[in-house]
Write a structure and sequence with these properties.
mainly alpha, 3 domains, four-stranded antiparallel beta sheet, 13 strands, about 5% strand
Length: about 775
């Protein structure tokens, strides 16, 4: 899509108003097929940090206008910068999600009537004047979207035959019901039309129903939707999946790529390309091959966008071969509108000893946007000096972002599989002819080359792991993250692994280590530095990917059982030297006050409670089965641990199930600030504490939550993975003393099922 170039103008203070509607045409709205509920619009109240009669600070230097984002209200410019520098909202995204009440020109007139026009701006503008302006001229965020109620259904997996445990079955039904709270549609009556009579908004209006992640993410998002789709398919919401795909196809047709999310401030970037996996999953579940007539040509559009805009040639230092590989590289030289204040302070902060010049600022803004495009915003895998600053101030570390010179292993693995699946769909299409078979052959050829590039650039045969490739150092990186499992998930298995079962176990040794040493699931990295895509945060997509990577291993290298750990054999000793980039003593320690059972490697609690066989299964790992191979054992443990993490954080924040499980008493809910809450599904959890959510990053932890539900739904179906009630440490740590090390299983107490329920009294998340 050709993006509009701003015309020049003469005024130094009063800019020319250019509506967002010149950038993206409003998509043709189709009739809803579902009924609507009352619109729930959030209207955040401005809460400036200074008194209302105080003067607002000088807004400082402005970044250049961005051709892809011409709005004078919601894109980089004086109005947006003034609102953010005054810090009217704790989250920059709040303001840019608010439609105006008036046409753009009148809104701008009101703004400049306060701050002044020309070379002598008003130096006496107060916070109160700015608050009154926002209250008068802007509406509630998310106004144009409407919740849609769905017809109640009972999918086939919600059956005692599939999930025999009544409590787990009941909770599965609760999670299934949460889709109804996340389904949205565009409300035609509330859309901003622009022009002299209409309001202005950042929303990209969509034709079809979709599912939002939740919380501040009140619009459709790209890579989130893959795990949402996986869950919707398990819940048999096939029509919503079809609608989701149609929305993405509309965007490919009208914009030329799939944006990060459904807002116009995302129009300079995409996200990990998961459209093909969504399409494949839908066709595989429904048999609907007719959708391919529209989808296949548009998948070609997306691949062409990635080739043109994100592909670079890299010469391997290992084989001297040159490969075409993809990276995240956003063209951007201004703060992200939805993350304006964080970006602006990173480039202009008073803590900078030597102020950045304009070129340095532009580079940093591009890096920040590129990190957001990766979906991992932000992570030590992108950062040259991740230990700068501290866990409460990550800005110094963010200033060393190196995203554009990092070739990500997960992105290239996704594009490899994208081409293979597209080739298969060409063959599957009705009345496929010679041209289809030729295109299929073309994509398989490119995929074959990309596979060789992945094995050359990213695979370390000594460490038995995949790493990102760093163009700055012209070598593989050293940060071990769950990205290491993407090639396995997508069917790329190195010969060292294929030829040796022992090496295959070493390649997945980190999974064993996490399950043995920590209460939660696999972290985003093993570095604790305050960034949200690092430890101790554990993200649902990563658990899904590792689970699927284990499933992808051939039976020929998964024939042996999981060897029990002992006092002489730690899980760390089972990992190749240097794979994690940490010595054993440098690994994060499981805090004793977060349930110290996992502070060592000998999981005697599993045996003592009848939950394992000779110590080969872990707490919250499910029940081992006879003749279970090591990969199946790790899969079972990881799936159960994930469900435990999500269930226990939900239960510890007020969750209950009528007729099955009482809500925790107030004194325990107070420990998680959950008085009045009905239980939360968090976007991320903690590797340390399964009672709480993850944290860190540029916004507070969000609830909802689309991909958490989706990963949970996709893990509920295998019966043998859910054969055990979740256990958690107590919320009230005062039950223990710090005078002695806590032994495995300390404080894991019995629950109180609801009186009269058919659930036996047994160990489940409870904290009295």
């Amino acid at each position: 899509m050709a993006l509009l170039q701003l015309p020049s103008h003469q005024h130094s203070r009063r800019p020319l108003a250019v509506s967002f509607h010149l950038v993206v045409p409003i998509l043709r709205l189709l009739p809803f097929t579902t009924t609507t509920t009352a619109t729930t619009v959030q209207t955040s109240v401005p809460s400036p940090s200074s008194p209302l009669n105080a003067r607002i600070p000088n807004i400082g230097p402005q970044a250049p206008k961005q051709a892809w984002c011409p709005s004078e209200i919601f894109c980089n410019g004086e109005l947006l910068q003034t609102i953010n520098i005054a810090q009217l909202y704790s989250d920059s995204k709040t303001f840019v999600d608010k439609p105006t009440r008036l046409p753009s020109n009148r809104t701008l007139d009101d703004f400049y009537g306060i701050v002044g026009v020309g070379p002598s701006p008003n130096p006496n503008v107060t916070y109160g004047e700015l608050v009154n302006f926002v209250d008068a001229d802007f509406q509630g965020e998310g106004l144009e979207l409407i919740p849609l109620s769905q017809q109640n259904t009972t999918p086939s997996f919600l059956s005692p035959l599939r999930i025999p445990d009544p409590l787990v079955l009941g909770w599965s039904g609760v999670v299934h019901s949460y889709w109804g709270a996340l389904v949205r549609g565009t409300d035609p009556s509330k859309l901003c039309t622009g022009g002299a009579a209409g309001c202005e908004s950042t929303l990209i209006p969509l034709n079809h129903t979709f599912v939002v992640p939740g919380g501040r993410f009140r619009e459709q998002y790209y890579w989130d939707s893959y795990w949402i789709v996986e869950g919707l398919l398990q819940s048999e919401h096939y029509s919503i999946v079809n609608s989701t795909l149609q929305n993405f196809m509309d965007e490919l047709e009208m914009i030329g790529f799939i944006p990060n999310g459904g807002r116009k401030y995302y129009l300079n970037r995409s996200q990990p390309p998961m459209f093909m996996k969504m399409l494949w999953a839908y066709v595989n579940a429904t048999g609907d091959v007719w959708i391919l007539n529209r989808a296949i040509p548009l998948a070609e559009v997306e691949l062409a966008w990635w080739e043109k805009n994100r592909t670079i040639s890299v010469r391997s230092p290992y084989t001297r071969k040159t490969w075409d590989v993809a990276r995240y590289a956003v063209v951007n030289s201004a703060p992200r509108p939805e993350g304006f204040l964080q970006d602006y302070l990173a480039a202009n902060g008073p803590d900078l000893v030597v102020p950045y010049n304009e070129s340095q600022k532009a580079d940093l803004y591009a890096e920040l946007a590129s990190g957001a495009e990766s979906g991992h915003d932000y992570s030590s895998r992108w950062i040259q000096q991740p230990l700068l600053g501290n866990t409460t101030n990550t800005t110094p570390a963010l200033r060393t972002l190196n995203v554009r010179k990092t070739i990500p292993v997960d992105l290239n693995s996704a594009l490899y599989k994208y081409r293979l699946l597209l080739a298969d769909l060409y063959d599957l299409r009705k009345n496929a002819g010679a041209a289809d078979h030729q295109r299929a052959c073309h994509h398989r050829h490119i995929a074959s080359n990309l596979k060789q590039a992945i094995l050359d650039l990213f695979w370390d045969p000594k460490k038995l792991a995949f790493y990102d490739f760093n163009m700055t150092s012209n070598a593989r990186g050293t940060v071990f993250t769950p990205a290491a499992f993407w090639p396995f998930w997508n069917g790329i298995i190195p010969k060292e692994v294929l030829e040796s079962e022992d090496k295959a176990k070493e390649a997945f040794g980190s999974v064993r280590l996490v399950l043995s040493r920590y209460n939660g699931t696999f972290p985003a990295s093993f570095l604790v530095n305050g960034l949200q895509w690092d430890a101790p945060n554990a993200w649902p997509p990563h658990q899904f990917i590792i689970f699927e990577a284990l499933k992808s291993l051939p039976k020929s290298i998964t024939s042996k059982p999981l060897t029990p750990l002992s006092a002489n054999v730690s899980s760390f000793s089972l990992i190749p030297k240097g794979q994690l980039g940490f010595t054993e003593s440098e690994l994060p320690l499981q805090p004793l006050d977060r349930g110290g059972y996992a502070s060592g490697d000998i999981n005697e609690v599993a045996v003592a409670r009848g939950g394992g066989t000779n110590g080969t299964t872990v707490v919250n790992g499910g029940n081992a089965t006879t003749k279970e191979d090591w990969a199946s054992a790790l899969s079972r443990e990881l799936a159960n641990r994930y469900i435990s993490s999500v269930f226990c954080s939900w239960y510890s924040t007020g969750g209950s199930i009528p007729g099955l499980l009482d809500q925790l008493p107030p004194q325990e809910l107070n420990a998680t600030n959950s008085i009045g809450s009905m239980g939360h599904m968090f976007e991320k959890t903690s590797m340390f504490d399964i009672d709480v959510a993850g944290g860190g990053g540029e916004y507070t932890v969000q609830v909802g939550f689309g991909w958490t539900n989706g990963v949970g739904m996709s893990r509920f179906t295998p019966v043998r993975l859910i054969a055990q009630y979740p256990l958690t440490p107590p919320l009230l740590a005062s039950a223990f003393t710090s005078a002695r090390p806590r032994s495995s299983g300390d404080g894991w107490v019995r629950a109180r099922p609801q009186s009269g329920s058919n659930v036996e009294e047994r160990e489940v998340c409870n904290c009295n």
